[in-house]
Amino acid sequence: MGIEGFKDETVVTSIGALEGISEKEPAVDFLGGPAMGMQVILAEGEVVVGRSKDANIVVEDEAISRCHFKIKVRDKIATIEDLNSTNGTFVNGMRIKQQVLKANDKIQISSATVLRFSYVDTIDKNSHERFYEMALYDPVTAAHTKRYFLDRIQHEFAHSARRNLPLSLAIFDLDFFKKVNDTYGHPAGDFVLHKVSEITKGMIRREDIFARYGGEEFVILMRDTEEADAVALAERLRKKIATSDFAFESKRIPVTVSIGVSCLKDSSFKSYADLIRAADEYLYFSKSNGRNRVSAKSLLTS
Question: The domain containing residue 264 runs over which residues?
Fold first, then answer.
């Protein structure tokens, strides 16, 4: 049949109820702060939000109270109540004691932690889960995203500085990675990135934050960790990667990394950006002095 005989007609059909859709339920989404990206469906009854381990929803933000506010749900109607918090609970910019929540109300309990109240159905929840994963995890390496890391380091830095605890940061970069892509192809490059991520995740603690910081650059943020311990981990990681077998389509790819380590201790840095900058400078030193090595203040001054 020629193009002149083709009929572009819309098929007439009936549209029934969307499969999987359900009655809308009250929920809160964390738009910022340590719990950014999390969605909580609010069941009938009460939930307490705060930084105490006894709260129903625990938010590790030191600027909020141990039990900051509660939300009571009855017949799908949600009422928020401040629990005599130190810094207050704000809904749409107004400090409140108790208030019935409406869809899209913004709840703020610190400069970082902001929530949005809404009503969601099954499709909304499934979509949120996909977007949540996209915001938190890099699709190639399954490491955390740069956005997630930058949000977390702000809170970890403030926590460590306030309590005078050490906080270490390692930044590492794959040596001559462009050559890997040019020689073996981009699928091989993605394979290398993914395997480096797997190796790293197998060597760090559960509480450490591991993220892809750039194209072939990664970061590890280590709470309550002295520089010596961070350097020791970095050296073990460097050796493990250098001796691992990276074989892609029967071709062995040599892989090494250069690492820079910085550590917050005794107010040695004024901001989290300074901590990142220092680790990056030590990384540059490693790359400028032979690569496949670890550099840190203690190693260069000892």
Answer: 146-299
